[in-house]
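Dear Dr. H.,

I hope your travels went smoothly. While you were away I took the liberty of generating a structure for the chain from your last submission, since the lab meeting agenda had it listed for discussion. I wanted you to have the full record in hand beforehand rather than looking at slides cold. The sequence, exactly as received, is reproduced here:
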Amino acid sequence: MNSPQYQYQGPGPYNTPQHTAPVPPVPSPRKPSRAKAWVTHGAVAFVALLIGTGIGSSGEADADGKAGASAKPGPKVTATATATATATETAKAAPAPTVTKTVTAKPKKTEKPGPPSTFSGDGEYLVGEDIAAGTYKTAGGDGSFGCYWARLKDASGEFDAIIANNNLEGPGRVTLNKGEYFQTKRCAEWKKAG
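The corresponding predicted structure, in token form, is as follows:
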């Protein structure tokens, strides 16, 4: 018997000979047609135009969402295309100019802090430090013994330190100068008169 001659290709399953067949060539990927490319790119451009128009037309509103709240409406322009159809177009008014006015607030004048202008009770006060200089008045004594006051040149307590003094049975006034001491006993409240 004549058996066909096979060429040995190496070990294979069950040591059977392998047949080699020619492999057909792989076709190269096809390029899309130019017409299809124009249609897809055109469709994408058209959709982008519609989206851009929608965004642009919504930008005509103010920041508050009110369209033209401060702008006055302009004249309306109508153009007739045919006898039966009319197109209306509204002219946009120019925005009103923004006016900014700067106002500088002036602070209220306040009195400088200093010695009080009223005082009451017994005591000895330095004029200009404990009480303000000026003319003071009182309603008189706060008891049955009357009101005693004294202007003093110093706080030594000596008899020679008295500039002026008085015992009041009713209302009275005294003018005090800066640097003097003022002594009061059994008097009602002293109020600055001038």
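Two observations you may find useful: The chain has one helix and ten strands. The chain has a mean pLDDT of 77.

With kind regards,
E. W.
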